[in-house]
C-alpha cells in the first residue's frame, strides 16, 4: 500500500471500511448462532479471497458462488465446499465434473426435468454422483418449482434414480427486497422457510433424500425469527450492506462498508449541480433505490470521512462523469472546490463492487491494504 | 481460439461480429471524408488494442480516451496522440505529465478557472506546456463553458499566459441522444458545430490561439451536413452501435456488432417467461431504451444466428439471471429447450462491453479469435 492518506489515492477508487465490514459479519453470524443455523456465505458480492476468509467459518468453506469462474478461483484458494446457486446449464456440466475431480464438493441447483436428465446423464457418463439441490420458488421471484407442484417429486426421482446425489432443496427469497418494514421482513423469512420445509417434507414422504434445506437472502437472514428445519442460510450483500438494504430497514447508512472515492471536477451553479469523476463505470448503472420510498439516484454523497453531506446524491451518470444534485429540489448544493474528495455510497453493493478490480481497505479511516477482486468473467 | 462453433463457447460470452464492426467504421469514415474532417475515435467503447488499430487512421492515433488508465494502456501499444476527454482533476496532473514525458501528445480538457490555474501551476512546476482544450457546453448536457460567457476568455488567458498550450475548444453533444428523427439529429449537429465555432472565434478575437475545434457524439457525427471550421470529430459507440442508437435512427438493428451469448436455464410457462444465464453482470444495468419509444428492457433477444426472435427482450436482470418476456404483453414466449443458445443485443454498447474481459470475434458467424479488453480501472 503506497498511499497513506485518502488524498493520495487515484480517483475513482473503491474504498472498504474494514471495521464496518467486520461488524456486519459479526451481526449476522451472531443472529444465526442464536437460531443455531450455519451460514453458507455468498461470495458473489465481494469476489475476494481475503474477504471470503473473513466470511467463512473455515478456510475450506462452506460458501456459495454465482459463477463457475468464482468456483474455480475460490477452489484455487482452498475452498472445498461450494454451492453454485444459479440453475445449471447443461453445457456447464463438464466444468462441474472437473471441479469435483479436483476434490471440491461442488453442488448444483435446478428446477426442471430437462436439467435433471442432463445431470443424470453426466453422472452416468462420468461415473460420478453430482450433488444437486432442487430450487424452490418461495415467493414468485424468479426460478424454482412451486410448493405443491408434483414436478418436485418427478425431478427428485429422475435425480435419485439417475445416479445424482440428491441433497435436498434450496430457495432464495428475492421478493423480500420489496419489503417495507420489519413485520414484512419477518413474514418474508417465515414464508421462505415454510415453502422450502414443505418441499423437503414432500421429498422425504416420497422416500427421497433431502438432508439439506437451504434458504437465503440478506433481508430474510437478518429478520428470521426461527429457522426450524433449515440446515443452512445463504446471504451475500450483508458483508457490505448498501442503500437498498438501508431503504428496507435491514441496516443503517452507517453500516455501509463500501464507497467510491471521487473528485469534484466541475461546478454548474446555474443548474445547482457539481460534477465528479465517478460515472456509471465506477458506480454501476444500478438504480435499486428508484423503486424505494427514498430514491438516491446513483448513490448518496458523503464527505471524505464518510459522513453524508445533506441530501446530496449522484442524480445522473455518464461513463466517467457523475452529476451531483440535492435530493430536495431547490436545496442549495455546496460549491465544493475543484479537487475536493467525496465518497459515494452505492445503491447495490454487488453491482458497484463489480465495476472495480479491487478494494482499498481502510482501518480507522486510513488506507492500510489493497485486496484484489477475482477477475470478472464466467 | 479453441471453440470453432458458438455451441462450444462458455455462456455468457461477449460476441463481436467483425464484419458489422468494419461496416460501421467504414460508414462513419466515408461520411467524414466527404465533409473533409478527420476522426479522432473514442476508444472508451471498445477498450481494445486490436479494435483501436482498426478505428484509427494510423497506429499512432489520433484517438480519444475517457481515463488515464486507457491513455497509459494505449500509449504502451504505441498510440502517441491522445485527448483525455473528461474535465481534468488537479490530482491527475502528475500522471498527465508522466505520459507526456514518455512522448505521448496527451491533451486535457477543462471548463473552470480553478482547473486552468492548476494546469498553469503544473506547467510551471514541470517546465512543460500541457496542451488544453476548453470544454464548451453546446446543449446543456453536462459540463462546459456556455457560449457567450466571459469565463471563456478568462480561462483562455489563465492558460495562455500561464504557460499551457491552449489548443482550442471541444464539445460533446450528449443531448443528441434525446433526438427522435433525422431532422432533430441534423439540428443537434449544427447546434454543436455553431456553439463551438462561436467560442473558437471569440478566443481568436481576443488574441488567443484556438487551432483545434473538436466536436463529437455518435449521433451528430453521422448526421452532420456540414462541419465548416471543425478540425476533428470524436465518436465512440459507432464502432459497435446498440439499441439506443437504433432507437433514435442512427443505425438499424442489423448494424449492432456486439451481443451477449447466453443459454436458457429455466422455463416459467405460468408467467410466460424464460430464464437465461446472463444477468446484469453480463448485460450491465443500463436501461438506455427505457426513455425511448420502444423499451427493450435489458436487451433484445435473438437466435444463435443473431436474428431477433419476435419481440423477445430481457425484461428483468439479477446478477447472473436474465428473465425473458415478450415486449407485447400476452404474446406467447416460445418454449426454447433448456440449453438453447440465444444472443442478446445491448441497450448501450459501452456499458455492456465493460462487463466483459474480452471479445469473441466472429467472422461469417463463426468464432475466429479472442481479443482482450484492456483491464478496467482508472
UniProtKB/TrEMBL annotation, chains A, B:
Residues 257-363 form the D-serine dehydratase-like domain. Belongs to the DSD1 family. CDD domains: PLPDE_III_DSD_D-TA_like_1. This is DSD1 family PLP-dependent enzyme. The keyword Metal-binding does not apply. Keywords: Lyase. The keyword Repressor does not apply. It holds the Pfam family D-ser_dehydrat.
